[in-house]
Amino acid sequence: MGTFVVGVLLLFLVGCIIRNMIQDKKNGKSIQCGNDCKHCSGCCH
Asked: How far is CA 7 from the centre of its chain?
């Protein structure tokens, strides 16, 4: 039973992280892009 509870909690946390990453990407944020366009000439947008 403990393994099931930990598994559900882990899936919930991973789902929240993925949802947050998708929302960040929709808002123009990215893991690869630090919004510092002087280094990449704005090619990441």
From this structure: 20
